[in-house]
Design goal:
GO biological process, one term: osteoclast differentiation
Keywords: Membrane, Transmembrane, Transmembrane helix
Order of helices and strands: HHHHHHHHHHHHH
Radius of gyration: 48 Å
Protein name: Osteoclastogenesis associated transmembrane protein 1
InterPro entries: Osteopetrosis-assoc_TM_1 (IPR019172)
Shape: elongated
Number of strands: 0
Number of helices: 13
GO cellular component, one term: lysosomal membrane
Oligomer: single chain
Strand content: under 5%
Helix content: 55-70%
Length: about 325
């Protein structure tokens, strides 16, 4: 219904009620039967319906108070959303609620990127529908102004920035393809290997307890799951190196939070819970280099001692001592 026609019809009905009330007042005064008691109310009730009677009473109170009509006198141009804008707002609200629920459910253990990326794309699409001017029409501009810039809070903008900030902090783009339409091959392979490692842990646990923290003997886990753990750790290191090569200009780049959290969980289970260790294959070269470095000072001082020349100390007699001894020898020969 046209709002202008509604306002005009309301004003005309109010005008008719005023005229009817004035006529009733004058007729009551002329007949001498008007009073503020029950007789006047009975006359009005006979002439008007229940709804009309309530309107007349409200109108009479407004006239007695100075003619102000309260809510009925509000301007007709109250701020309201067009049907198109309201539909855009509801679409964004529904998609935001779904994404929020997905983020909270995937908080621990972290499963944000692998489970919520379709919903994030949906929210981004709904936000684009609101912010961009479709066909450069004035309605689209009005929707963007009404939903994004009409008040100080700007709730829609705040929610959109929160989702974008969360997505960037989680570095979910590192787990997805270039167009962010699906998980990358390396991410899928890592998650499969991660699930395989956890399955190996569960299958080789000894004891009947259900909690991992209550178990005591993990020798079978360390023995049978060593290869799976080494493969997962090697793949993680390779993904880190590839990420550093691809993002040389950006310092402190990380893998997506799902991959990092999965590797942290596996390492904690392996080293802290199961108390397992992986022998290093480069132990012999490392030990050889360490021994060589330790013996370097010994070799240095030994070689310097062997190749240095030992200077013999020579006793040099003074000249006076030589002359006195030769004189003594001459005297002995003369005797």
């Amino acid at each position: 219904m046209d709002p202008d026609r509604t306002v005009a019809r309301r004003r005309s009905s109010l005008l008719l009620l005023r005229l009817l009330l004035v006529a009733l007042l004058w007729s009551g005064l002329a007949l001498g039967t008007f009073s503020l008691g029950s007789s006047s109310h009975r006359v009005l009730h006979d002439l008007l319906s229940e709804e009309q009677l309530l309107k007349v009473e409200d109108l009479s109170l407004a006239l007695l108070q100075g003619g102000r009509m309260g809510p009925l006198s509000l301007p007709p141009d109250l701020p309201d959303l067009d049907p198109e804008c309201r539909e855009l707002l509801l679409d964004f609200a529904n998609s935001s609620a779904e994404l929020t629920g997905c983020l909270v459910r995937g908080a621990r253990p972290v499963r944000l990127c692998q489970t919520c990326y379709p919903l994030f794309q949906q929210v981004a699409s709904k936000m684009d529908n609101i912010s961009r001017a479709v066909g450069n029409s004035s309605e689209s501009h009005n929707c963007a102004r009404s939903l994004l810039m009409a008040d100080r809070m700007q709730i829609v903008v705040i929610l959109s920035e929160f989702f974008n900030s969360t997505w960037q902090k989680a570095n979910c783009a590192n787990c997805l393809t270039n167009k962010s339409e699906e998980l990358s091959n390396s991410t899928v392979y890592f998650l499969n290997l991660f699930n395989h490692t956890l399955t190996c842990f569960e299958n080789n646990l000894q004891g009947s307890a259900h909690s991992l923290l209550q178990l005591r003997n993990y020798s079978e886990v360390c023995k049978n799951c060593r290869e799976a753990y080494k493969a997962l750790s090697s793949l993680y290191c390779e993904m880190q190196k590839m990420n550093e090569l691809e993002n040389k200009a950006e310092s402190g780049t990380h893998l997506c939070i799902d991959v990092e959290d999965a590797m942290n969980i596996t390492r904690k289970l392996w080293s802290r819970t199961f108390n397992c260790s992986v022998p290093c294959s480069d132990t012999v070269p490392v030990i050889a280099v360490a021994v060589f470095i330790l013996f370097l000072p010994v070799v240095f001082y030994l070689s310097s001692f062997l190749h240095s020349e030992q200077k013999k100390r020579k006793l040099i007699l003074p000249k006076r001592l030589k002359s006195s001894t030769s004189f003594a020898n001459i005297q002995e020969n003369s005797h």
